[in-house]
Amino acid sequence: MLPDFASDVDTIAMAGASIYYLEVNLEFPEGNLSARNGPRLSGVERVRYANTEAILSEIYFNLYPNLPGYGGQMTVETVILDGHSIQPELVADNSALRVPLFQPLPPGYPVDITLTYTAIVPTHTDLGYNIFSASDNTVALAGFYPAIAAYDETGWNIEVPPPYGDATYLDTSLYRVDLTVPEQMVVAASGSLLESVSHADGTKTLSLASGPMRDFYMAARVDFEMVSETVDGTVVNSYYPPDLADGGKLALRYAADSLRVFNQRFGQYPYAEFDVVATPTTAGGVEYPGIVVVSQRIYGGSGGFFQHATAHEVAHQWWYGLVGNDQVDDPWLDESLTNYSAVVYWEEIEGPESAQEVMDVLFFGPYEQAKSQGQDRPVIGPVADFSEGEYGAFVYGKGPLFFNALRREVGDEIYFKIMQTYYDEYKYKIAQPDDLIEVIERVSGRNIEPLFETWLQNKIVP
After folding, report:
1. Which pLDDT value is given to residue 434?
2. Are 299 and 251 in contact (CB under 8 A)?
3. Which of 309, 340, 314, 322 is nearest to 261 (CA)?
4. Which of 50, 98, 202, 289 is buried deepest, with most CB atoms within 10 A?
5. How far apart are CA 297 and CA 308, in angstroms?
6. Which of 106, 100, 68 is nearest to 86 (CA)?
7. CB-based burial of residue 167 (10 Å sphere; 0-12 exposed, 13-18 middle, 19+ buried)?
8. CB within 8 A of 367, min separation 6: which ones?
9. What does DSSP say about strands 291-295 and 273-279: parallel, antiparallel, or unpaired?
10. pLDDT tens digits for 403-445?
């Protein structure tokens, strides 16, 4: 954490955040580090879960690698609950683990759970965004550990999401990770590196720790190179394969400028480190707390979508990473806001004309094309309500136009005061759509129901 936010760790811990201690080994068949061979993970997870919800008789863990959009295989071998062995149950098409409790757990009481697990990292994935895989010499490890599911007024959130869109809906937690990898591997990860210890067998153990974060991500390859810059006290690192050095330096520039703009417009990024990593993801980019990935296939160009995708993923540090939401059931709340927030970056760095061009090409264009084909629909709704094409046109295209219309109506001063208030009040928490609407109306003093209905809730009548 940056010095001004160091106390957030204790505050979040005292408020009942889960605390994860992970010991993870990444092993390659016959010691061959080529990602084509498919590595294997083995891990021990110790987590203290403090119940901040209702009386609970069970706890659920998400096993993200078992989702169709991840394409891996995670097996939990043992579960120990407060020192006693428990027989868990696989549910939700094996993508979640139900851990029954010996007795009901009242709010305010903690429980200690230890799991041992293994996971097979696929060499490619036919569905999803290639985010849990070993491909093109890069190991990408999204969801590499069993993660306690979010509990809200609907109960435990363990539904199986489509292979497109984001799958995570998690509470803020604290992490300590000891990762053992071959000595040659260069690792980029959420949080910060505390120490690295080499072993006689040709491996090393990296000790990593995070501030309050919603999940933990890692990527690794033998030949990652890195360039860095410090922005407002935060060290920004760009990791890339050696043949993409020019793109890696551009990614650093885009990420550093984005962080600087969003610090000013939305509120200070609280962590001491931020990483942007080139990976073989089939998405334009994917967000994780403290680290984002951008598809290496776009590192060969400059400006354009490469620049926008990087700014978009950086904006997710505010909208999803710090201010959380249910990305499976309310994707517009982070994706639409994030995509419009990237326009703020374009305005500040490249000027209003470039920002308007981005809106024309990425927002109005896809939405108008959908309308010309007789397609229009509300932006509000779970990911599963959209086809993959609709998801792009409406959540990423039409949704940001709500925030553009809001800004035009209330003016820049009030608009950014709204965003800063939303960030301040819901940082490290989970926000619901009604929470954002309440902040907008309270800060602006306006009834925004007409804008909400026009751009988010109802179809537009031609």
Report:
1. 97
2. yes
3. 314
4. 289
5. 14
6. 100
7. buried
8. 393, 394, 397, 398, 401
9. parallel
10. 999 999 999 999 999 999 999 999 999 999 999 999 999 999 9
Contact call for residues 27 and 182 (beta carbons, < 8 A): no
Residue with tokens 């935060």: 234
Phi-psi region of 394 (alpha: psi -120 to 50; beta: other; left: phi over 0): alpha
Domain boundaries, the chain: 1-213, 223-322, 332-457
What is the Cα Rg of the chain in Å? 22
What single letter denotes the amino acid at residue 12? Answer: I
CB-neighbour burial class of residue 377 (10 A; exposed 0-12, middle 13-18, buried 19+): middle
**Residues in the chain, pLDDT under 50:** 461-462
| CATH 1.10.390.10 for the 223-322 domain, yes or no | yes
Here the tokens at position 449 are 């129901």
- pLDDT attached to residue 462: 45
Residue with tokens 């608009």: 415
3-class secondary structure per residue, the chain = CCHHHCHHHHHHHHCCCEEEEEEEEEECHHHCCCHHHCCEEEEEEEEEEECCCCCEEEEEEECHHHCCCCCCEEEEEEEEECCEEECCEEECCCCEEEEEEEEEECCCCEEEEEEEEEEECCCCCCCCCCCEEEECCEEEECCCCCEECCEECCEECCCCCCCCCCCCCCCCEEEEEEEEEECCCEEEECCEEEEEEECCCCEEEEEEECCCECCCCEEEECCCEEEEEEECCEEEEEEECHHHHHHHHHHHHHHHHHHHHHHHHCCCCCCCEEEEEEECCCCCEEEECCEEEEEHHHCCCCCHHHHHHHHHHHHCCCECCCEECCCCCCCHHHHHHHHHHHHHHHHHHHCHHHHHHHHHHHHHHHHHHHHHCCCCCCCCCCHHHCCHHHHHHHHHHHHHHHHHHHHHHHCHHHHHHHHHHHHHHHCCCECCHHHHHHHHHHHHCCCCHHHHHHHHHCCCCC
Paired with 91 in beta bridges are 96
Task: Fold for 1-213, please state it.
Answer: Immunoglobulin-like (2.60.40)
Do the two domains 1-213 and 223-322 of this chain adopt the same fold?
Answer: no
Tell me, letter by letter, the H, E, C secondary structure of 209-276: ECCCECCCCEEEECCCEEEEEEECCEEEEEEECHHHHHHHHHHHHHHHHHHHHHHHHCCCCCCCEEEE
Residue 380 and residue 433 in contact, taking contact as beta carbons nearer than 8 Å = yes
Q: How far apart are CA 445 and CA 430, in angstroms?
A: 24
Class of domain 332-457: mainly alpha
